[in-house]
Automatic annotation (TrEMBL):
SMART domains: PIPKc. Keywords: ATP-binding, Kinase, Membrane, Nucleotide-binding, Transferase, Transmembrane, Transmembrane helix. It comes from the Eukaryota. Residues 293-628 form the PIPK domain. It comes from Paramecium sonneborni. This is PIPK domain-containing protein. One of its GO terms (biological process) is phosphatidylinositol phosphate biosynthetic process. It holds the Pfam family PIP5K. GO terms for molecular function: 1-phosphatidylinositol-4-phosphate 5-kinase activity; ATP binding. The keyword Transmembrane helix applies. GO terms for cellular component: plasma membrane.
Amino acid sequence: MNNQVTIAYIDIGCTALSMVACLLICILGIVSPIYRKYPSKIIVWISYLFIFLGIFIYIDQAIVIINHNHQNEYKELHKLTDFFLGVTIIIISNQFILFLNEVKICIYNPFQATSSSVFLFLLFLQTLLTLVLIIIPLVFYNYITQYSQLASYINFGSFLICLIFYFAILSLLYRNKTLQSRRLFEFKRDFVRQQAYWLFTMLLINFAFSFYNLNANENDDSNIFKIALSLEGLFYSIFHLIQPYSYHKLLSLLFRSCQNQSDIQAIENIEYGINEDNQNQMMPIYEKLLKTQINELVKGLVKAVLATLNMQFEHHMKEFEKKRTYTFKFHLSELDESRIEFTETDDIRDSIILVNTYHPNSFTTLLKSNHFTKNLLEYTLELQYNQKAFEKTKESMGRSGAFFFFSQNNKLIIKTIEKSEIKDFLDGRIVSYFNYINSHQKSLIAKIYGIFKIKLMAYKTQYLVLMENTFEQLKQLDYEFVVYDLKGSTVNRTSQSNESVQKDNNFKQSSHNPIYLPKEISQQIKIQLQDDCTFLRNIGYMDYSLLLGICTENVQQKETQNYRLVINEEKNKLFSFSIIDYLQRFNQQKKSEQCFKRSLKFKKKKDLSCRSPEPYCDRFINFINSIIV
């Protein structure tokens, strides 16, 4: 018994070290922008789980010490804490499965790897799992021993799934290695290997503990395994804290005066996106990976769009042709990435681009009517000309993981979009769209110039829209301007001061509210916006925004054929108006979102952004009438 008490004290000390180490990662999650991204966000989340595990181990071993003097008086409580140890281990093991899924996403679909919505969904799954693992034993408390054995079997299953998943990722990586540049493949390989070092250490400890739990006698206490388990959080933390970025960030935070100022500056450059050295040793490897592959992938997508547009301009197509498929071959050297053979036996394959372009004739006609020639398109989307634009693509990522590519001359935007939105638009609404846009030359709806489905190299299929850049004329002024994304809603419509695009509540508190325009122009813009919103309502769309740009520097009169750009000379302000993000129907997902938000914000139902098309349109029009004077 004295031996067990001694081990319990050792276990408590190890647990304290582990919790301190995990707490350091949690601090990084609070202060570091990079640790709020994928997959570091999951790393922080697992650290919280290890802290909970440490709490249960601490209680469990404290009971061992107390029982030494009270003759098993707390036996039932000890059994309960043992069970919760098993539950926490299962949650951590299942989190490893979800983490591996994010590793797969990072190497296969880098746009989704930046999505915060995916992480929230994973947390939702973890919450459900936690509830199941806690509620069941409370209901069937008398069978807690048998349930602990079931928990061990669940953990074995998690271990097996992790192994299978990891080797599937390796297979995916090596099967497609010759479709990527050597540098990108090496980043992916190093990233996947890096995860393996700590992942399998954690899983083996969990596996061993569950195996002991399954075969232990009632009076036995797994002291040795609990020491290993208490050190698990420490092992986990060490693997991540020894990364150059991590320990430099912690040193700069805790001991800033002792840090080399050049190291602090290098970290700040990485965090604010102004570090142009892709090989910076302090940058986390997954940041290097995402930066490199997003750059390569976007170049491939732009190349595919340009090649498809050239075909559309050259080929005679049927007037109502719905879809046409093209296949292109290219070498990675065409994307300014070196193609180096890996071994003499490697079969270096050409990269294939498969493109489906929808309603090619109608979109080509729309491009021509807006003064786009084949030469202008080639100049706008030419790879060498857009080098700086490619570097900025990752900075243009949205919360959903969608990317925005803005051509260097500010004429066109390429944006990824969900498959469901494309399908809804093509199923019966696109004809109405063409009819409306062609008959309303002064419409403020941002024009779509093409819809594409592209399968490129070793990446997931991407759905893209080619759109006009409604800020083209404003950006030609070479002056700073403020951008607002306005929906007419107040709930969760406030941007942080460091965000480039402001929202409704920011606008209401700004000096730009209301917008003063000459009376005749003000009335015409209101009528046009009302017509546009009515059209979107009639085809079942909602959740669109008014994209408002305001420039107050050296304003001069600009000639324009529509209301995209208007001026108030008295106030020395220039305004740009357009309606964007309008391909969202009020589907089941949006209905569920509305129901959920109403349950949380029941006092502000009318102010919720998510509403059905008709009330959304009415509120949007009322909002427009209130801010334009």
